[in-house]
Recover the amino acids of this structure.
């Protein structure tokens, strides 16, 4: 069985030093997908993200994977509570976060910073239903 997270297209950030270099000190926008290997939604998301990576990069955004169980301290920093989750960082500053599966169109919209065009995460959907 092929490991869907073993990508030739998107680098996986596996340690703090690489995170500092590729995300916190990057000169521009960076999109990181937090995943866990046993998550079925993450397994569906990984090939979509690989497919969309060239289009994301055409918009001047670099893209990476990060295993949430390995990079849990970074997940804590960004308040990641479910997978898959995405963060968009610009010059080291968080500008957007989304928790939950994204379609190909939503992946590109997120990379462009158009977070209002995304399907709400389950948590957001449940909270909006509860208060209506």
């Amino acid at each position: 069985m092929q490991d869907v997270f073993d990508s030739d297209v998107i680098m996986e950030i596996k340690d703090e030093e690489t995170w500092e270099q590729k995300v916190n000190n990057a000169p521009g926008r960076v999109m990181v997908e937090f995943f866990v290997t046993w998550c079925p939604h993450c397994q569906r998301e990984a090939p979509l993200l690989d497919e969309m990576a060239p289009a994301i990069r055409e918009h001047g955004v670099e893209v990476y994977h990060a295993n949430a169980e390995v990079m849990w301290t970074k997940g804590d920093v960004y308040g990641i509570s479910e997978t898959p989750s995405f963060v968009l960082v610009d010059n080291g500053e968080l500008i957007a976060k989304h928790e939950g599966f994204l379609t190909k169109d939503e992946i590109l919209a997120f990379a462009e910073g158009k977070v209002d065009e995304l399907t709400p995460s389950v948590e957001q959907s449940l909270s909006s239903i509860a208060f209506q």
